[in-house]
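> example.struct
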């Protein structure tokens, strides 16, 4: 409760009995039982009887002043009379209204300024309706029959509410006189109908007042309870003043509050001429209710924690809209703080979420969440509550909801032209943070702390956000303290602190009880680094490539965009220098899986195969016999046992299927002291078919391979390929001197003609031979012809 009004006695021990009152401006008009009409002038300091009538010898039952028409309408001993307001002289009496028991007047001013006065008069069980014109009342419409004798009446626009002994009715003044029954009067059967404002009526039902609209509808929320049955009611927003037998009660409709009780000596009635001139009267006393200033009421309401009423009063002040909004915002902040202190955490955060309150001031309500550098600058209306047990969890969850909502709003506005945020303190005068980015940093860091307290599964998603603004050092400290190393690595990664992340991964990989034990986490992290951080990849992949080569190689071969986009030449150079054994599987992957057609990679893979094969051949316990048969011995190339056969098979296959290597740059790596099959394949790619065929026919002595070679390379449309079968026949009929191949470290027999083989080729492939060339050069000569492609010291390409 608070003091909304102050009461002061203005008429004391009047020797006449007061029956009714009416007021206008600072004038109070009183009608008495003895038939007097008294007019008082009320000022701030004094009350003066300005004028009065002589006794009319008749009881003044009701009085209504209409200053706009300078008249007083009086119900005088069951007659309706009109007096001049200036002179108090009687002007007229409505003859038809003789025997009236009640009257009610309604004055209106339209939007165009037109003024009208209507009056309804209850005469027995009829309702008469009049309007004022030309200094007199005229009938508005025909009489309306009533079900009983009226006890109270009140206008509401084009309807009149009439209270009878048992019921209330709403009568439409529309010419038809339609009547709507409302509800009973109550057990005491005392009716009271009073207009509150332009849209509402107050209707009494024992100690409850029901608020009714023009249609006669109401809800349970539109009721007002009293401690006794009101005899009269007056409305001065937001207060309803009820005149009770022993005192005056001041209440509000929304919220339903008892605001004030003023003890007076048997008050009976109330009237007013606006909020500053409210009068109460008993039989012989008159009091004036003077409203306490709204500013003082607001201050008192805030102190009494009546925040809703305080905000409602702010809306009634004459301040500008901006000033009102600021004051309401401040009260709402205090209300939200009060809810927090009452440990109504959800309700408190919901109020804060709707305000422009600095989020750091809200975070500061919670222990150990806001850094001390900020918290020491904030002041609160009262000491903060100590939270224990489940209260900590409940408050934490409410704060998470608040911060999530605030974060969403700030992120949307982060890139707007206005870099600064409009925030307000809980306590006026306390500094606030304006920078949106700084606020986001504090919010995200606080969310991290909250999730670590009560919702661990949300920590990682928060840190993975692209627009995560967590304070690095503070987040790093708390994550380490709580041994959340997986989440710490996410923080480092999103902040681009990759070396720190890799250091943690390496440290944790060696700890038996760590969730990051092993090398898998480091492999996955390195795979995500991309080409811009290749130096870090090289720095931290060594121990994995050494100890876990197969998994380590996935750092450079995993099917990820970041891995595929790595500069492959740099990766290859790194492997060749530091982990040469892994260069072959790396090249195999980028060529065979990723289908890289770069000639240098194809050349490199062939050279590495060659080096490995040669090394394995040199490591054999005995040199194979190179003679008339196959140079590499009786076992076909690529079918040797163990690793040698496997790698040589890969080499031969790759030389056969790849179209991207450069044979002229590779031929020197394949001398005549071994790998003759491989050399023949290279010579074929270079188009030197006769040299290749010499190896198959006269060194390897494998006619089947020679024929397969021709089958593969023959193309009737291409020069150099359409005569390959002719070259094979020549090789059989007139083989060149072995020394024409150049310096050879192995001992070979002089080649001899093989007429049978030549005839077989001729028989099977005669359609692929150029007969002109054949007849001119393929005679069965016993004398060996000079070799057109004999080796010269000037030619060292093979």
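> example.seq
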């Amino acid at each position: 409760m608070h003091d909304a009004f102050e009461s002061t006695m203005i008429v004391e021990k009047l020797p006449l009995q007061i029956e009714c009152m009416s007021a206008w401006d600072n004038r109070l008009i009183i009608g008495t039982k003895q038939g007097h009409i008294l007019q008082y002038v009320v000022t701030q300091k004094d009350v003066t009887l300005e004028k009065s009538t002589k006794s009319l010898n008749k009881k003044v039952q009701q009085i209504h002043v209409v200053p706009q028409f300078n008249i007083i309408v009086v119900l005088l001993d069951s007659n309706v009379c009109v007096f001049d307001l200036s002179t108090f002289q009687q002007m007229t009496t409505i003859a038809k209204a003789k025997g009236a028991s009640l009257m009610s007047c309604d004055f209106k001013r339209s939007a165009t300024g037109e003024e009208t006065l209507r009056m309804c008069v209850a005469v027995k069980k009829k309702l008469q309706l009049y309007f004022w014109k030309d200094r007199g009342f005229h009938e508005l419409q025909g009489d309306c029959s009533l079900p009983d004798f009226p006890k109270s009446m009140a206008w509401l626009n084009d309807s009149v509410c009439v209270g009878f002994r048992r019921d209330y009715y709403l009568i439409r003044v529309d010419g038809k006189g339609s009547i709507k029954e409302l509800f009973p009067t109550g057990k005491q059967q005392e009716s009271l109908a009073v207009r509150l404002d332009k849209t509402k009526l107050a209707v009494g039902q024992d100690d409850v007042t029901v608020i009714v609209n023009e249609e006669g509808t109401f809800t349970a929320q539109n009721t007002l309870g009293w401690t006794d049955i009101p005899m009269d009611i007056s409305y001065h927003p937001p207060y309803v003043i009820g005149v009770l037998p022993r005192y005056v009660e001041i209440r509000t409709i929304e919220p339903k509050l008892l605001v004030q009780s003023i003890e007076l000596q048997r008050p009976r009635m109330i009237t007013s001429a606006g909020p500053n001139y409210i009068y109460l009267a008993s039989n012989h006393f008159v009091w004036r209710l003077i409203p306490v200033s709204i500013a003082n009421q607001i201050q008192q309401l805030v102190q009494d924690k009546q925040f809703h009423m305080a905000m409602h009063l702010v809306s009634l002040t004459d301040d500008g809209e901006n000033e009102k909004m600021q004051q309401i915002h401040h009260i709402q902040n205090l209300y939200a703080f009060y809810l927090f202190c009452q440990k109504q955490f959800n309700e408190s955060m919901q109020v804060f979420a709707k305000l422009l309150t600095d989020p750091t001031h809200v975070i500061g309500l919670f222990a150990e969440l806001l850094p001390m550098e900020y918290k020491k600058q904030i002041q609160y209306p009262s000491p903060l509550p100590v939270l224990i047990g489940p209260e900590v969890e409940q408050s934490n969850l409410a704060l998470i909801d608040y911060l999530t909502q605030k974060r969403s709003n700030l992120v949307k506005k982060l890139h707007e032209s206005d870099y600064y945020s409009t925030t307000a303190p809980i306590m006026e005068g306390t500094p606030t943070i304006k920078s949106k980015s700084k606020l986001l940093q504090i919010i995200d860091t606080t969310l991290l702390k909250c999730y670590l307290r009560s919702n661990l599964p949300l920590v990682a998603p928060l840190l993975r956000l692209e627009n995560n603004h967590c304070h690095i050092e503070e987040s790093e400290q708390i994550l380490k303290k709580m041994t959340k190393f997986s989440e710490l690595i996410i923080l480092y990664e999103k902040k681009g602190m990759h070396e720190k992340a890799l250091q943690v991964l390496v440290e944790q990989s060696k700890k038996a009880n760590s969730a990051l034990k092993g090398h898998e986490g480091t492999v996955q992290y390195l795979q995500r680094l991309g080409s811009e951080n290749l130096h870090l990849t090289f720095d931290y992949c060594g121990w994995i490539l050494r100890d876990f080569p197969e998994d380590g190689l996935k750092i450079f071969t995993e099917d990820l965009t970041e891995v595929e986009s790595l500069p492959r030449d740099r990766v290859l150079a790194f492997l060749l220098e530091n982990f040469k054994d892994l260069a072959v599987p790396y090249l195999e992957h980028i060529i065979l899986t990723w289908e890289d057609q770069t000639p240098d990679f194809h050349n490199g893979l062939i050279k590495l195969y060659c080096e490995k094969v040669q090394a394995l051949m040199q490591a054999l316990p005995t040199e194979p016999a190179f003679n008339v048969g196959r140079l590499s011995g009786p076992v076909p190339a690529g079918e040797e046992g163990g690793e040698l056969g496997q790698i040589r098979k890969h080499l031969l296959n790759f030389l056969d299927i790849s179209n991207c290597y450069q044979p002229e740059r590779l031929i020197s790596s394949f001398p005549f002291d071994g790998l003759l099959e491989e050399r023949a394949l290279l010579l074929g790619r270079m188009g030197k078919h006769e040299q290749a065929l010499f190896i198959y026919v006269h060194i390897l002595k494998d006619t089947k391979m020679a024929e397969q070679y021709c089958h593969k390379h023959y193309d009737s449309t291409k020069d150099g390929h359409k005569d390959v079968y002719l070259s094979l026949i020549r090789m059989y009929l007139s083989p060149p001197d072995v020394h024409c191949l150049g310096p050879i470290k192995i001992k070979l027999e002089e080649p001899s003609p093989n007429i049978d083989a030549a005839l077989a080729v001729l028989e099977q492939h005669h359609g692929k031979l150029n007969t002109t060339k054949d007849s001119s050069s393929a005679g069965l000569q016993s004398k060996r012809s000079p070799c057109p492609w004999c080796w010269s010291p000037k030619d060292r390409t093979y």
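> remarks
The chain has 28 helices and 28 strands.
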